Amino acid sequence: VTKYLLAAGLYGMIGTVLGPLLHLGGPMVMRAAMYTGALVSGLTVAAMTAPSEKYLQMSGPLMMGFCAVFAASIATAFLPPTGKLGGGMYMIAVYGGVVLFSALMLYQTQSIVQQCERTPHHMTYDPISASIGIYMSAINLLSEYLTFYKVVRGSEHVARLSGDCKFE
């Protein structure tokens, strides 16, 4: 019972944080949510139907990717995104985050499937604790998509203000 209350508290806090964001975002946030849902569904099906445990061997590359994206995220705090180096670091942080959290979702899903298959029948399997990582990866993917759309929308706005784009 305590575990269910803690899980409900976690999900409630995440909903409290994401609720105003989703309410104020409009169509851009809805599009990001649809893309996130489609990506999560596709990755989950791919991980569950994979013939072997090949995604479980990605722990080393995942850790290297996390280090690279973390370093790029830290670098964006010190480098201006308008420069070439700062803009490149920002793009590594955004696009690398999408790729990284997608790969992490494959890894976590296949890990959960393996845990479930290898749990002896006399022991109980806990799907709630196992699925919190997937839930957080989906939230991170939504965050990365929103960051991506903010970058695209911001560049369109700047181009519109500078007169570089012709609208018919």
Keywords:
single chain; 168 residues; mainly alpha; 0% strand; disordered C terminus
Condensed summary:
The chain is an all-alpha fold and 168 residues long. It contains five helices and no strands.
Walk me through this protein's architecture.
This protein has 168 residues and is mainly alpha-helical. Helices cover 82% and strands 0% of the residues. The chain contains five helices and no strands. It has helices spanning 2-25, 27-48, 59-78, 84-118, 127-162. α1 (2-25) crosses α2 (27-48), α3 packs antiparallel against α4 (84-118) and α4 packs antiparallel against α5. The longest helix has 36 residues, at 127-162. The radius of gyration is 19 Å and the shape is globular.
Relative helix content: over 70%
The number of E-state strands comes to 0
Number of helices: 5
Topology pattern, helix = H, strand = E:
HHHHH
Taking all Cα atoms into account, the compactness measure Rg is: 19 Å
Mean model confidence by pLDDT: 82
Which consecutive residue ranges, at least 5 long each, have pLDDT under 50? 157-168
Shape: globular
Percent of residues in β-strands = under 5%
Termini separation: 60 Å
Class per helix and strand makeup: mainly alpha
Biggest β-sheet: count, sense, barrel?
A: none
Topology:
Elements: H1 2-25, H2 27-48, H3 59-78, H4 84-118, H5 127-162
Helix pairs in contact: 1-2, 2-4, 2-5, 3-4, 4-5
